[in-house]
Amino acid sequence: MEAATRKKRTERLRAVMEILAVSTKLGLTSFGGPAAHLGYFYNEYIKRRQWIDDRNYADLVALCQFLPGPASSQVGIVIGVMRAGLLGGIAAWIGFTLPSVIALVLFAHLIQGFDVAQAGWVHGLKLVAVAIVAQAVLSMGQKLAPDRNRATIAILAMAFVLLWPTAWSQIVAMFLAAISGMILYKGNGDAGLPAIRVPVRRSIAAGSLILFVVLLIFLPLLANSGSSHWLSVFDSFYRSGSLVFGGGHVVLPLLEREAVPAGWLSKEEFLAGYGAAQAVPGPLFTFAAYLGALMGGWFGALVATLGIFLPAFLLVVGALPFWDMLRKKPSIQGALAGVNAAVVGILIAALYNPIWTSTIADGIDFAMAAILFAGLTFWKAPPWLVVIIGALGGWLASVL
């Protein structure tokens, strides 16, 4: 019995370390923002390692799109939780987040004012993002929008998001898609849908949701008492992470309203960090680490990073066990069919704006992006190799 327990713990530790290694690789190579991150995750976790299948991955993406916070980070956390429990989720978050945290803190200390976002190799990485998202659109579209109804939902969601570019447009688009799916696919329930393995007790999930609400209500009260500057900083970043929908780009104006008027840093310092955040891999929410580092070095970076990501972790851990129960209901399955199609449309919209519009400026850009796309799709080149080729190509194009 004791030997079996030790073996189980060893296997769990091995799984956690594997998750840490794989997510760190993704954290070092995942350029291009949330839409591109989902493409990287799909290639690594689904196609290469087959940790979960396409259907479950799409459902998890839909869940994380509904929740506030950084959707791509939440998807990574959920996959880590499913693979190795709460420690697996923490390992997935650390691996994916830490590289960009370190890069942005170093930028805050060493290279403020250097316009790295305009460097040629960074433009090459943006071209990689075009190829990654295009491949994700192709692969997910074939699976999640294979018929006329779902393809129509995807195109309408794309048009809706592009024509109404606000923080709420994605949420409204998915809500309308869910209603459409419930109507169109209400008789297509799949009682044999494989369960998502969730090694989290419902008591822990409920506790996570309760803690999320308690912190959201009481942190501002404690911060307003003026007892601690760092408590006020943690509260500001926690609220920003709790209330933002639409991904990392949407959180930036929220943080600007919190940090600059309070005198924590100047507007020029804020904008310099924004440029650096575009140039590093990993989640854009790690911009908080840069802001925290300007306020208080590595300790400030830690406070800000934990504050902005904690809501995301609490919400996905709290929602996941109940999500598996709900998604098996025929009405929920119909809604998910619509939402999954809308996710494809939202990815198409993201491919166009901001990725395509801010990257493809001429025929050379288009040709390089097409070559990178072919390398991923037809030559099956690993993403890290495509990242290196894209960076080198962008640098060469800038010096020739």
From TrEMBL:
<comment type="similarity">
    <text>Belongs to the chromate ion transporter (CHR) (TC 2.A.51) family.</text>
</comment>
<feature type="transmembrane region" description="Helical">
    <location>
        <begin position="90"/>
        <end position="111"/>
    </location>
</feature>
<dbReference type="InterPro" id="IPR014047">
    <property type="entry name" value="Chr_Tranpt_l_chain"/>
</dbReference>
<protein>
    <submittedName>
        <fullName>Chromate transporter</fullName>
    </submittedName>
</protein>
<dbReference type="InterPro" id="IPR003370">
    <property type="entry name" value="Chromate_transpt"/>
</dbReference>
<dbReference type="GO" id="GO:0005886">
    <property type="term" value="C:plasma membrane"/>
</dbReference>
<feature type="transmembrane region" description="Helical">
    <location>
        <begin position="123"/>
        <end position="141"/>
    </location>
</feature>
<keyword id="KW-0812">Transmembrane</keyword>
<feature type="transmembrane region" description="Helical">
    <location>
        <begin position="236"/>
        <end position="255"/>
    </location>
</feature>
<dbReference type="GO" id="GO:0015109">
    <property type="term" value="F:chromate transmembrane transporter activity"/>
</dbReference>
<feature type="transmembrane region" description="Helical">
    <location>
        <begin position="335"/>
        <end position="355"/>
    </location>
</feature>
<keyword id="KW-0472">Membrane</keyword>
<dbReference type="Pfam" id="PF02417">
    <property type="entry name" value="Chromate_transp"/>
</dbReference>
<feature type="transmembrane region" description="Helical">
    <location>
        <begin position="298"/>
        <end position="323"/>
    </location>
</feature>
<keyword id="KW-1133">Transmembrane helix</keyword>
<feature type="transmembrane region" description="Helical">
    <location>
        <begin position="204"/>
        <end position="224"/>
    </location>
</feature>
<keyword id="KW-1003">Cell membrane</keyword>
<feature type="transmembrane region" description="Helical">
    <location>
        <begin position="153"/>
        <end position="184"/>
    </location>
</feature>
<feature type="transmembrane region" description="Helical">
    <location>
        <begin position="367"/>
        <end position="397"/>
    </location>
</feature>
